[in-house]
Amino acid sequence: MTSMRGVAMTYGFDLRTADSDPHLAQWKRMARQLLGL
User: Fold this and answer.
1) Going residue by residue through the chain (37 aa), what tens digit of pLDDT does each one get?
2) What is the pTM of this model?
3) What top-level branch of life does the organism fall under (predicted)?
4) What is the Cα–Cα distance from 29 to 15, expressed in whole angstroms?
5) For the chain, what is the largest distance between any 2 Cα atoms, rounded to a whole number of angstroms?
6) Long-range contacts of range 20-23, CB-CB < 8 Å, 24 or more positions apart?
7) pLDDT on residue 35
8) Residue 11 CB contacts under 8 Å (≥ 6 apart), including other chains
9) Contact 15, 29 (CB under 8 A)
10) Can you spell out the DSSP letters for 1-37?
């Protein structure tokens, strides 16, 4: 969660879009597992 928060803050300072992040799919899988979805 700390890593995800740090990356989310990066988007506030960097003009890149979240869709271009290579780790997005992995974070979605991890969030689903942690939330039991």
Assistant:
1) 777 777 777 777 777 676 777 778 888 899 999 999 8
2) 0.46
3) Bacteria
4) 25
5) 32
6) none
7) 92
8) 17, 18
9) no
10) -HHHHHHHHHHHHS---GGG-TTHHHHHHHHHHHHT-
